[in-house]
Amino acid sequence: MAEVALAQPRDLPVGPLHRQGVGWWGAGTLIASEAALFAYLLFSYYYLGAVNPVGWLLEPAPDLSLALPNTALLLASSVFAWAGESGVLDYFSPRRRVVVSAGVLYWHFVDAVWLFVFTTYYLTPYLGFGR
Predict the structure, then answer these.
(1) Which of 31, 27, 18, 22 is nearest to 103 (CA)?
(2) What is the pLDDT of residues 47-91, one digit of tens each?
(3) What domain range is 43 assigned to?
(4) Domain-located, residue 8
(5) Residue 21: how many CB atoms within 10 A of its CB?
(6) H-run or E-run covering 3
(7) What is residue 61's three-state secondary structure?
(8) What is the spatial distance between Cα 5 and Cα 66, in angstroms, rounded to a whole number?
(9) CA-to-CA distance for 76 and 121, rounded, in angstroms?
(10) What DSSP state is assigned to residue 97?
(11) Residue 3 within a domain
(12) How many folded domains does the chain comprise?
């Protein structure tokens, strides 16, 4: 059987058509597991805020001087990642694009998690949470 396979070499598939490849599903699974982890962490933060007495936060009003510009920079990088992914339709074939699409999908996930963390840690103390 091995002689037949070696005698008639065939082209190996390079990757999936469109986004439905193993790499895309792997990135989706990674994102789902990390989303569960961050959901548990944020839930525990809110739970501790609900059951503890007033003043339980170590830093009742975090400084926003670095957090706001860094958040804007992170959101701008997400826009550039999306533009880069859309600019890749003519350079890469659809089979090779899945790597870029999975990376951009993960970057959008990073942005979403940061927005939840930013809202939870930086903004809610200014709204009266934990006082």
Answers:
(1) 27
(2) 887 888 877 766 677 889 999 999 999 999 999 999 988 888 667
(3) 15-127
(4) no
(5) 19
(6) helix 2-7
(7) coil
(8) 60
(9) 21
(10) T
(11) no
(12) 1
